[in-house]
Design brief:
Layout lengths: L9 H9 L7 H11 L4 E4 L6 H15 L11 E4 L3 H14 L7 E4 L6 H8 L4 E4 L1 H9 L10 E4 L2 H6 L3 H7 L8 E6 L4 H10 L4 E4 L10 E7 L5 H11 L5 E4 L3 H13 L5 E3 L5 H12 L5 E4 L14 E4 L6 H8 L9 E7 L4 H11 L4 E3 L3 H39 L1
Parallel strand pairs: 1-6, 1-7, 2-4, 2-5, 3-4, 5-6, 8-13, 8-14, 9-11, 9-12, 10-11, 12-13
Helix pairs in contact: 2-3, 3-4, 10-15, 13-14
The structure holds adenosine monophosphate.
The site of adenosine monophosphate (AMP) has 16 residues, from helix 3.
Length: 413
């Protein structure tokens, strides 16, 4: 079935065409009809499956075609998301799908002045995409009225729990009308999430995407056994061999992110870094530069593993294996999004072998191993050592020349 066969507004169909969305993805195929019928939905789907459009398309259609209500006099839908970045990204999808329709959306999150957000709210907004903190601030101040919400969406509910928003979500229910539609999206499911979900939804349709294999079918992923001290040489090799490709490199800590970036810079490879030490504004700038392809390599810690939509990432490199097995899925899910194909490779040192086992247990199957021939391994390390030695020699010569010049100048004086 194609989007052109759906009974949805023509403007929305046109916008989907512009986005290059022809056929619905699995999650879209399963959720759109249920959401259009007004049912509650409890969906287990990872990022990269097209889950944002799975709720954005029917919500926009419903609000756009509801002629009974005076459009701009109340907020009809609230989409709660765990992070600023995800809020911006979800809002972008809503804006693109709602273009030229009557539906108005607004994105609100903390860390920025609230006045502009309040002003926009007064102009009349249909859909608010919000992080919990700022949403509650505005609600307590009376600037955000949740009492007439018709649809509540919780996106990445599991991440919301990880970040400690459970009490906020429970409290929020007091301010929402009982008679509403609730759409609950989570990448994983456990007892806590189930409990929260069932306190929010009513007779929900349950949708689960690829429960047995949490890694998308579009991602070819493998592991290579590389010792800790040799990892940078292999990364250098991959980046040099795929200079035209967009690569996302995951490391364990922010210190390592900067260290790997420095090592790559010595090998004349331009990279960007993204971790929790970076200010929110700087993080957005980095993300934008990477999205536009100005710099093709981004080295990140797990803050970036979830939710964020970076289009056209060709490669994910797990420079370090993630400590939390679930993050493996989020990391490799940064490639092979929508209907594209992607590749992921993990570097696993001897010390990391137990972590690899845990990840494989989580995935319920082994990860394909790339056998590196001994000769190839040594060649990669030696070649890189060679370049570094040459570079060191060059920079030493330059330093010596500069010192000589200085001394000559001093003598003349
Ligand atoms: P999401 O899981 O919502 O983060 O979406 C992942 C990616 O899939 C995004 O880059 C979307 O643009 C893309 N996408 C979503 N739906 C479709 C579709 N029906 N056809 C092709 N690409 C899609």
């Amino acid at each position: 079935m194609k989007f052109s066969d759906y009974r949805i507004n023509e403007d929305i169909k046109f916008n989907l065409e512009q986005l290059g969305f022809k056929k619905p993805t699995d999650i879209q195929y399963k959720s759109i009809p249920a959401i259009l019928r007004g049912e509650d939905v409890l969906a287990i789907a990872q990022t990269g499956t097209g889950k944002t459009a799975a709720f954005a398309i029917p919500i926009i259609h419903k609000i756009h075609s509801d002629k009974s209500s005076k459009r701009t006099d109340f907020i009809k839908c609230i989409v709660m998301v765990p992070t600023h970045e995800l809020a911006l990204q979800v809002n972008e999808v809503f804006e693109k799908i709602a273009e030229k329709t009557r539906v108005k959306t607004l994105c609100i999150f903390g860390g920025v002045e609230q006045d502009a957000q309040i002003k926009s709210l007064y102009k009349g907004i249909d859909i608010v995409i919000a992080t919990p903190g700022r949403m509650f601030d505005l609600q307590h101040q009376g600037a955000l009225d949740l009492s007439k919400i018709e649809i509540l969406v919780l996106d990445e509910a599991d991440h919301m729990l990880d970040l400690g928003f459970i009490k906020d979500i429970r409290d929020m229910q007091r301010f929402l009308p009982k008679n509403r539609q609730t759409l609950f999206f989570s990448a994983t499911i456990n007892e806590h999430i189930k409990k929260l979900a069932y306190s929010l939804v009513n007779n929900a349709i349950r949708i689960q995407i690829s429960p047995k294999d949490p890694v998308s079918k579009n991602v070819q992923h493998a592991v290579a056994f590389i010792e800790m001290d040799d990892k940078r040489f292999f990364l250098e090799r991959i980046l040099k061999e795929h200079a035209d490709k967009k690569v996302l490199v995951f490391v364990r800590t922010k210190v390592r992110a900067e260290r790997v970036a420095n090592a790559m810079s010595r090998a004349e490879i331009k990279t960007l870094t993204m971790h929790s030490d970076k200010e929110h504004k700087e993080r957005l700038q980095v993300l934008e530069a990477f999205k536009k392809g100005k710099t093709k390599v981004l080295i990140a810690t797990d803050i970036n593993a979830r939710g964020i939509d970076i289009p056209n990432v060709d490669f994910v490199v797990n420079y370090d294996l993630p400590d939390v097995a679930e993050n493996y899925v989020h990391r490799v899910g940064r490639t092979g999004r929508g209907d594209q194909k992607g590749q992921a490779i993990s570097f696993c040192s001897t010390e990391e072998k137990p972590t690899l086992k845990t990840i494989e247990t989580f995935l319920t199957k082994p990860i394909h191993v790339i056998d590196i021939e001994k000769e190839d391994y040594l060649e990669t390390v030696e070649f890189a050592n060679d370049t570094i030695l040459k570079e060191d020699l060059q920079s030493l010569l330059k330093e010596a020349e500069a010192l000589e010049q200085k001394l000559k100048k001093k003598k003349k004086k």
